[in-house]
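quick one, 158 residues, struct below
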Amino acid sequence: MRTNRLRTVHPVLWAGWAAVAAGAVLCVVGWYGVSGERFAERQLPYLASCTIPGAALIVSGAVLLAHGRGSIAAARVEELYGLLVTAGPAEGDGTGHAGLAPLAVSGELLMVPGGTLWHRADCPLVAGKAEAVPVDSGLVASGELGPCPICEPAEETG
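---
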């Protein structure tokens, strides 16, 4: 999914490369002309007609290339932002509280479905995770879940 702005940047890049190439050719022609002349007054026309305009074309081509690359980066950021905005919030469980973290209640133990540890509600590993659910005492008793080494929850599940 390319934006229209990205399509309009490519001519700027091509113009930049063309200006750099033309400038390089003019600089080479100017150097060749200057190198064939012995006296400074005969070298000046080559400097004025080839080398100086060639250097100006190289500088302007570099500016066009920098602008084109900056525009490409800006277009990509806009494209990614558009994708982020259109994605919308995550689907919830139907309660209307999609993306909200569970409340941290003192003594409440939580686990993440599919996880191997159980945590206190204020543990940084589960704090703010909407998918965290209360611990089933059967899982703790069977040994399928181990205590979190960070928050070191109490053994009783209440």
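The radius of gyration is 33 Å.
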